[in-house]
Write a structure and sequence with these properties.
Number of helices: 21
Order of helices and strands: HHHEHEHEHHEHHEHHHHHHHHHHHH
Distance between the termini: 78 Å
Number of strands: 5
Radius of gyration: 32 Å
Largest sheet: 5 strands, parallel
Strand order of the largest sheet: 2-3-4-1-5
Length: 459
């Protein structure tokens, strides 16, 4: 659907920057009515941007060279998926895009809407198109629609009946089906950083005509407590401005008065996998400080310590391996310690394990060797072991050569016979290549010594 670029004078106020729907007269409201909100409205409503350039924290999309800015300048607004956390401006951006493109704004929530609501919206959009207009259909929490409902958008997006703008806090790669994703451009919205949150605080002070009763430290703590959520930040500002105090609040006083925003963490959603990946790669990268941070982040988010113990035990085998043979027993010991002590004392043993694994020498030699051996086993089928290493408990087995010529390694001078243990039909292969890090230096020396003895005895 073609977009019409408007000037600032053409624009009317949009919805709340932080996702609260401005109160329309009906669900299919084109845009909010002009004029500033009443003073008794929530501060987040009163500070909702009226122009795309007033949206904070999303310069990569809405700045002079932003993706959405260039799209509007070309006069063609594509269907979009806005992916970002709570309070970063998804609903506001959708409303202001509709204004900037000259489209009728229609909002649905996947939480409260069903097939009947979608059909009605599509029918209204077709009538709008026949009258020469266009429709931007904004679907909040679009990931909550099932696969069949998501497929229902395909024909109306393809034929231009609607410009679809979906909002989601979930990774679209997992939450949306591939057919819908192929017809939409995914725009990633940033969590609000310190400068963006500070801009909101300055706007709040200008709007209310009052400075926040905070020290510089308290102001920084307030931003940190919001954790990138602009709506939550302004809600806390309202609470602060209602206080009767002449003394600026420092960080400790602020923490006593206000509740910190709950950490974004869902044990079966994307954030879970993001953080365990960060923990794993921090330990692999030998950074104990970063590893402890991600470990603590997961525990603070409510992760089961047993899950972390299991993943770190796997890490000890996969990433430390024979470079530090004590890593795996220590992982099991830390796991057992947690089981015996429980929380919160048991977490200390797991923290010790984090530090040990992060600072241990690393080798994935065994991990790679096992993979190579599995591939060789699949490729070679059912080859028999060489006869000399087969046991011969019966006379028949002795007669056909089982065990014939076997050399008992302990009886040799070096404790190493150098015999072949691969199938006769298979050339000797090397799967395990020790890295020379940590204890693997000793292992590599042994293997090189045995290789020389083997070559001498088999030549």
């Amino acid at each position: 659907m073609a977009a019409r670029r408007t000037t600032p004078s053409d624009m009317a106020p949009g919805a709340d920057l932080f996702g609260n729907q401005a109160p329309p007269l009906d669900r299919d409201s084109s845009a909010a009515h002009p004029g500033r909100p009443a003073p008794n409205q929530p501060l987040a409503d009163r500070l909702r941007p009226n122009r795309l350039e007033d949206v904070v924290g999303q310069g990569h999309l809405l700045g002079p060279d932003g993706t959405l800015t260039r799209m509007l300048e070309r006069g063609s607004l594509a269907s979009l998926i806005l992916w970002g956390g709570p309070g970063v401006g998804k609903t506001t951006i959708a409303r202001l895009l509709a204004q900037a493109a000259g489209l009728r704004f229609v909002q649905l929530s996947a939480v409260f809407s069903g097939v009947a609501d979608l059909k009605k919206a599509f029918e209204n959009a077709r009538r709008q198109a026949e009258a020469g207009g266009g429709t931007l259909l904004f679907v909040d929490e679009i990931h909550r629609f099932n696969r069949a409902q998501q497929d229902g958008f395909l024909p109306v997006v393809e034929d231009g009946t609607i410009v679809l703008v979906g909002a989601t806090t979930e990774n679209p790669s997992f939450a949306l089906n591939s057919a819908l994703l192929s017809r939409c451009q995914v725009m990633v919205l940033n969590r609000l950083d310190d400068p963006a949150e500070e801009a909101l605080l300055a706007r709040a002070e200008e709007e209310t005509g009052r400075p926040l009763p905070l020290t510089e430290e308290g102001r920084a703590t307030l931003r940190a407590m919001a954790d990138g959520d602009g709506r939550y930040l302004l809600n806390m500002v309202e609470q602060l401005l209602s206080l009767k105090t002449d003394v600026p609040l420092d960080a400790q006083a602020l923490a006593r008065l206000l509740a910190k925003r709950a950490v974004l963490y869902d044990r079966d959603r994307e954030e879970h996998y993001n953080l365990i990946s960060a923990l794993h790669k921090s330990m692999r990268g030998s950074d104990p400080d970063a590893a402890l941070y991600w470990f603590a982040r997961m525990l603070e988010g409510g992760e089961d310590p047993r899950y972390l113990a299991r993943r770190m035990t796997r890490f000890a085998a996969e990433d430390v391996g024979m470079a530090d043979p004590q890593a795996l027993p220590l992982a099991i010991a830390a796991w057992e310690t947690y089981e015996r002590l429980g929380s919160p004392e048991g977490e200390l043993a797991l923290a010790q394990l984090v530090v040990h694994l992060a600072t241990a020498p690393k080798s994935n030699g065994v991990y790679k060797a096992y993979g190579a051996a599995r591939r060789a086993a699949k490729a070679t089928g059912s080859l028999m072991p060489p006869a000399h290493i087969l046991n011969a408990p019966t006379k028949l087995m002795q007669e056909i050569g089982y065990g014939k010529g076997y050399q008992y390694d302990h009886d040799t001078e070096e404790g190493f016979s150098g015999q072949n243990y691969f199938p006769d039909e298979m050339k000797r292969q090397t799967f395990y290549n020790p890295t020379g890090k940590g204890f693997e230096r000793e292992i590599r020396h042994r293997l090189e010594t045995w290789a020389r003895l083997r070559d001498r005895r088999q030549s």
